């Protein structure tokens, strides 16, 4: 657990001693944020970018938060001015944004958002579950709001902080971690630390751009039109017209052992979501994938 | 996921189609029960048997339940009459018991408890995290209470049931499971199914009794005095007088690669908690452990 804390601080670029893993999914991570930092009735702005933001809206209702929901066209991101207008209008205690939104493949620009929130005494919560280590992210927390009502037991960060040895108190047990999950997390973090964030970001950027260029060459289109709104980890790719998405993905899986997830929510039936992250962000993987996509296009009767 | 459901139904001896795994710890499982079946103000009886029950009392407070807490001497379990008196007095909506309580090593007898609860229109919730497959347990649920207030997102069993394909609805995503955790759960369940519950229960019983007999021969004592209150998975063993628990456990770990957890909560400093479960419930493991304990006793100046 102690290694994991050190590795996490590097990956999140933070000096905050309270940097821990909660044993849960990304959604559970978001629910941990809401239930540890906000009381029922507190004011939240959710800048929805796709399915993940919608799930946070769902959570916010369950926890009786007073929520202002921002929604935009798919493939679009929010400007600093739009976010600032929303939090001042709503007098928000917290702004929630998704950094890399894998529904369509957008990257919410965070430049200046932290300082802007700080100015308005508003917490900034960021879901970076798919963008961490593929696109730059710099975290540092200024303070933690007092919370009056109890959190659910499992997600209680105060207790978790004691268990993870982030406080002056003696470590006491909170819940049992899965040893194989913890080992997997540790190893993944160790690999990021070994490669270095600058190298990783550059590698992901280079290979994402290579992929987008080659997609263009074979006549396929990215779901997110503006390059500056795309992120390096997951690219939404439009389904070729007249082709059934599931049949197309099935072809790639059975003939090429390439497993691509279909769109979901607003991208259902419109885009497939191609993840080129971690070990998959390599030029030879891009080449292999492009060959497979070309063969798929031919197979389903498209001319190249 | 489909295999896991079938295996789970066998292990829990239930025909209930809604038999799923939640990706969480045992504590998280208990919180899932409370938050899915009870509303704030609902009446709960917790029959505490050690640390795990106390944690449920903590959860119940966080979720504003009206809780009656039963506590007994360590090593003791509850009679059917005591449980019935409590739920009728409290007009309880739910009774919570821990089956195998690893704090001291007790097994709560469940014979007749289900029928008794049913008679009083009270749900029975059982934590069997350490006793499942080592001691007999027969589950079948008669009905599910209506719940008015929303559950936390992550623990929402209704949504999970859809994701696990337990309903007529099309499967929709709820949260991402860890693939290695799911694979580990599937493999563990497959091993239980392959061996068979009757064989497993008998094996655990035989090896637990062998261990207790040999403990007696080397002059060590079980923490739970009455044999009928002990369970087959975890045995609390009293620390030899005048010996520091942590030093004793460190000796076993470094010289014999045997990792025994110390007591916690009410057994802290009083008993070590020896788990002989699954692959460790074998006569040769018992023999090896007894030799190590004997050497430990000698090392710390005890006469055998």
Number of beta-strand segments of chain A? 9
The strands making up the biggest β-sheet of chain A line up spatially as: 2-1-3-6
Overall pLDDT metric of chain A: 91
Calculate the terminal CA-CA distance of chain A, rounded to whole Å. Answer: 51 Å
Query: What shape does the CA trace of chain A take?
Result: globular
**CATH fold call of the largest domain in chain A:** Aspartate Aminotransferase, domain 2
Most extensive interface: pair and counts? A-B, 30 and 30 residues
Integer tally of domains of chain A: 2
H/E topology pattern of chain A: HHEHEHEEEHEHHHEHEEH
Which structural class do you get from the secondary structure elements of chain A?
A: alpha/beta
Give a topology summary.
2 copies of one chain form a homodimer.
Chain A: H1 2-11, H2 26-37, E1 43-47, H3 51-62, E2 66-70, H4 80-90, E3 94-98, E4 100-101, E5 106-107, H5 113-119, E6 123-127, H6 157-163, H7 179-195, H8 197-217, E7 234-238, H9 245-256, E8 261-262, E9 271-275, H10 283-299
């Amino acid at each position: 657990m102690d290694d994991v804390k050190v590795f996490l601080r590097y990956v999140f670029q933070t000096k905050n001693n309270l940097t821990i893993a909660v044993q849960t999914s990304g959604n559970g991570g978001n629910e941990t944020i809401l239930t540890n930092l906000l009381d029922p009735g507190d004011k939240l702005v959710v800048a929805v970018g796709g399915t993940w933001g919608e799930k946070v809206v769902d959570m916010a209702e369950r926890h009786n938060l007073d929520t202002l929901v921002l929604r935009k066209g798919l493939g679009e991101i929010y400007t600093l001015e739009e976010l600032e207008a929303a939090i001042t209008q709503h007098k928000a205690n917290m702004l929630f944004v998704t950094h890399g939104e894998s529904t369509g493949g957008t990257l919410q620009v965070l430049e200046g958002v932290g300082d802007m929130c700080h100015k308005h005494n508003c917490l900034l919560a960021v879901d970076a579950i798919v963008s961490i280590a593929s696109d730059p992210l710099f975290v540092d927390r200024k303070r933690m709001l007092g919370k009056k009502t109890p959190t659910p037991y499992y997600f209680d960060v105060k207790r978790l902080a004691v268990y993870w040895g982030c406080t002056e108190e003696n470590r006491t047990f909170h819940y049992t971690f899965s040893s194989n999950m913890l080992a997997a997390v540790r190893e993944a973090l160790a690999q990021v630390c070994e490669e270095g964030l600058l190298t990783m970001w550059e590698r992901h950027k280079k290979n994402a751009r290579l992929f987008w260029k080659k997609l263009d060459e074979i006549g396929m289109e990215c779901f997110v039109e503006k390059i500056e709104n795309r992120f390096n980890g997951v690219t939404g790719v439009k389904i070729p017209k007249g082709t059934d998405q599931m049949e197309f993905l099935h072809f790639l899986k059975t003939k090429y052992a390439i497993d691509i997830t279909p769109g979901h929510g607003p991208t259902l039936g419109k885009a497939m979501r191609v993840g080129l992250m971690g070990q998959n962000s390599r030029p030879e993987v891009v080449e292999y994938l492009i060959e497979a996509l070309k063969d798929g296009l031919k197979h389903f009767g498209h001319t190249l």
